[in-house]
């Protein structure tokens, strides 16, 4: 795993992205070289004057489009079957539209129709071959990490199951488990490592050629080999605790096995002036651009809401923001005007019968969220962050969900990590799952992660899988 601005990125995904950038640049140059053979020297020189910029624009447009289509969220069970082509074709179509806009604004960068067609054909072939090579070599030793689990209880079992998921982008080879006498045995006996009297942890690491030790012991009070773990770390062996392993593999922070000291002494939680300034600038720029682009759509949405039942167009509701302060969030009304006529707040659920036909479409495409841009301009919300919840539910969730208040240490957002990774929440259990994603965002928030969330939001909108 790599860390880019605190966010974990799989080695395989990073390798695939690197290879496909080279493929796309190569396709642009090869396609242009083939087409330019029929031109005279003077025309060829004029055409190549801005070609590097054109090739970069083509590469960025296609990589962005493929990311928006979720093509870098790899599933090794799916492989290169039918869904790959169902995503590649729309990705190329989106990339073509983006390039058409770029070339319209900067005609000197244009490839020309013949060159463009050839470049896209070569790029499609190259991406298919690159992905086939990556998927076929995903079991290669150099892409795998050989790990050992210190512990044999429920936590070690859960960690190992996570490591062995076949659809996982991170590939692991499990050497075995070193059980702790203070906990119940939950892993198969055949997976236990043979530890003889006098064997040190570093000797076992060398014997089994281990590159990482995952500490998955819940009770660390007696017999915990802290000195031996330090010795391993000093000799270049990676030592990872279970909380960090879960964070790395699921992009969540698990609260059921979390130690408060891990939050206190661990990295992340950047609330510096520089980060705050960059985030505010990012919020204002994104909000302004989307407001300008979506204003005609917002007018049509307002008209559609009013025509459906002649009810109010907008809906304002009290929510809890940063530091627990309340504010009123603004949305296009997507439910019946009498959705809570009994006066009792209710969870919004998927396929909620209170949602109108227009409201259902707006929810799937996130159009109902657009008026919250006003909240962003007022400084009550960010463009990206944990979704704000109603005070009535916050009071309940604080009582039953550990660390729930941590999400209020940053401004809530129109879209967020939990919204693009998890479905509708209609219970305390759903709130716990979403909180684990929110905690990951609060801990690791950065401009890079904000951009990833926006790209994933675009994927949610395109596939109408709104959260």
TrEMBL record:
Span of domain Bacterial sugar transferase: 279-462
Membrane topology, as annotated: Multi-pass membrane protein
UniProt subcellular location: Membrane
InterPro entries listed in its UniProt record: Bact_transf (IPR003362), EPS_sugar_tfrase (IPR017475), Sugar_tfrase_EpsB_2 (IPR017464)
Top-rank taxon, per record: Bacteria
Keywords, comma-separated and alphabetical: Membrane, Transferase, Transmembrane, Transmembrane helix
Record-annotated membrane-spanning stretches: 12-31, 51-72, 84-104, 116-134, 284-307
Pfam families the UniProt entry points to: Bac_transf
Main subcellular location of this protein, as a coarse class: membrane
Family under the similarity heading: Belongs to the bacterial sugar transferase family.
PANTHER family per the UniProt record, alphabetical: COLANIC BIOSYNTHESIS UDP-GLUCOSE LIPID CARRIER TRANSFERASE (PTHR30576), UDP-GLUCOSE:UNDECAPRENYL-PHOSPHATE GLUCOSE-1-PHOSPHATE TRANSFERASE (PTHR30576:SF21)
NCBIfam families for this protein: EPS_sugtrans, EpsB_2
Name under which the protein is recorded: TIGR03013 family PEP-CTERM/XrtA system glycosyltransferase
Species, as recorded: Massilia hydrophila
